[in-house]
């Protein structure tokens, strides 16, 4: 559904002079420098794919989305969305995609929410019957009925995001681009939107690409993960594969009650005598925690046991550091 | 077109949400323009003529200038305030739609409150033509030519605005530039061009061709030494300028596609 | 006090970031200046006079008011953007700070004024004067001219402050801006020296707060200082300061009662 081949985009930055008359000298003699924002980016997303596109701020996420949606033209490489080039067939591609920028609304600020939907339907030439059908489904799923007649400026952030999602779907696009759709929302609102997106992807086979900083979005939604750093792709695959490839140690934490025979603790154990807590790292892929628990249990009376699994943040952070 | 009317209605609806503020602004724009003219009238009542043109003749220039300015602000205000699109990256959103950005800009906001300036322009025009008629001048040519005058004038103002907006693709900020490309020249167009120093007149006839909005045709219409063909020059210039501005705009969008904001 | 001076300085310095934009605006201002000068020269010609001023004097007058336009509220951010603060709610934080709300904007406003005077008023005045020449100025009037300019700048600040604080009571300050713009444009002597306004408008405008913005300072420059030209602006500066402080108090009370 979406294919990127060797996408590259440069930004041109004027080299700043420093010192006396810096501005004037920059103006007269400043050289333009090419700084890559996205470099040699290739990936493919099948129909019905649900991709998390992640990376730190300034890694090139937005630039990529802008190239996929036809806002920016790549300096090198090719993009295809639904078999068409967003660069050469911008308007045709626009009909096939829905875009939501989490930080900005596409709705008419002063009008009742419903009016924005009607205007967008007219803009995309959506037939009345299709419009009614789409509204029937999405307004129900997203719970829009309670505020359809409220002006957009009076909506809460969560309501506005739901309305924005509905707005992006009215023309029945095959592909959805969501730039940080859960930013700034509370847990309930996030869960509602996640549920909706999962449903949309599974039932209607919509292809979805989302960027996010929220790891729960990724863990709960994404079938495919593309990680970008410094404009380059550093990972492309499933979350499980990622966990398997970059194994971070799980941690076994045992809290004791009463005396502890510290000398008997297995090698590598960190022990905090004040809290009477022992921590031991191990690799789930290689060892099972049971023998370790037995070994620790032999050292004293156990009060509590916890196994801490590595978080996706930790894995990705490790990758960021590695790719630096 | 159906879409356009829908959008027009929507913008009226959204502006009517603040009924009081809306009514107030309409009236204020009327008063503002009326007072602008009143100040000049104060001079003219004392001295009869500016550069040989009397109160009603200057009134005609004034009213045409304010009519075309108001039309532009009513129908293409988003072009006038294009800075918000370049500054906040809102232009991106326009490019994700299956409609050309210029059409979207036109439909984003009909700025109804500037309609006050238009109404005031109509009143002022009636006053000027009535006065000229009373003096025994023939006003039929001016009346017949009025639609052409307004359309070509509005087209010139729009083209200047579009070119200024396009500059925003490079400079991001354009509001300060508008003093030079919009406010200043349109005020200048409200007076006979020959009172200005030569270099300024040169600018107003070429780079920022507001001289063709009202001054050039009125040289013929009010028998100020103009020839009949002057009437053709204004629409011609308007089309040329609009064509150039559109090309520049397209070029600007191309640039935007390759660099973003 | 140190805080206000720092704010003044920081506002002044921050303007340098936008000097390209300011330059573009100066260009527009020059067009206006040449236009008004041309209107007067076209009207007066070599022979006619207004208030005893010929076309030279009117040229000097127009060049001067075009320069000090940048001390008016038009060269300040609209209503100091108090409207935005009210809308986003950050106004409560501002009101909480241990500095005077009024003093804060006073320092802020004069930071703008200082920059605008040096890099906009003076160049625009000088460039226009290259075309119309300079009046012979009696240096004995210099202190008076400086005083008049201070009045003008302060009245410019006040008018912008009033536009801004309207936001505490109404949704938008746009209407207040338009009213203020219209009043200043008409009654400050920006295009027309006030005594030639028709009918009762002339005497009325001469005692209005607007006269101190353009007309009275211009009269000092042209060598015609009057006692009224000092007393009227002085009176308004004092009276409107009291009003502004009262209004600020009322705004604070309103915020405390209703929340941000």
UniProtKB/TrEMBL annotation, chain A:
The keyword Nucleotide-binding is assigned to this record: yes
Residues of the ABC transporter domain: 2-255
Molecular function in Gene Ontology: ATP binding; ATP hydrolysis activity
Pfam families in the cross-refs: ABC_tran
Domain of life of the organism encoding this protein: Bacteria
UniProt keywords, alphabetically: ATP-binding, Nucleotide-binding, Transport
InterPro entries named in the record: AAA+_ATPase, ABC_transporter-like_ATP-bd, ABC_transporter-like_CS, ABC_transporter_ATP-binding, P-loop_NTPase
PROSITE patterns: ABC_TRANSPORTER_1, ABC_TRANSPORTER_2
PANTHER family noted in UniProt: ABC TRANSPORTER ATP-BINDING PROTEIN, ABC-TRANSPORT PROTEIN, ATP-BINDING COMPONENT
Protein name: ABC-2 type transport system ATP-binding protein
Organism annotation: Tumebacillus permanentifrigoris
Automatic annotation (TrEMBL), chain B:
Keyword Transmembrane helix set for record: yes
Sequence intervals crossing the membrane: 20-45, 115-133, 139-172, 203-222, 228-249
Keyword terms, alphabetized: Membrane, Transmembrane, Transmembrane helix
InterPro entries for this protein: ABC-2_transporter-like
UniProt-listed PANTHER family: INTEGRAL MEMBRANE TRANSPORT PROTEIN (PTHR36833:SF1), SLR0610 PROTEIN-RELATED (PTHR36833)
UniProt protein name: ABC-2 type transport system permease protein
High-level lineage: Bacteria, Bacillati, Bacillota, Bacilli, Bacillales
From TrEMBL, chain C:
Keyword Chloroplast part of the UniProt annotation: no
Signal sequence bounds: none
Entry's transmembrane regions: 21-40, 60-80, 142-163, 175-201, 221-245
InterPro entries: ABC-2_transporter-like
Pfam name, any one: ABC2_membrane_6
Keyword match Phosphoprotein: no
PANTHER family named in the record: INTEGRAL MEMBRANE PROTEIN, SLR1174 PROTEIN-RELATED
Stated name of the protein: ABC-2 type transport system permease protein
Organism annotation: Tumebacillus permanentifrigoris
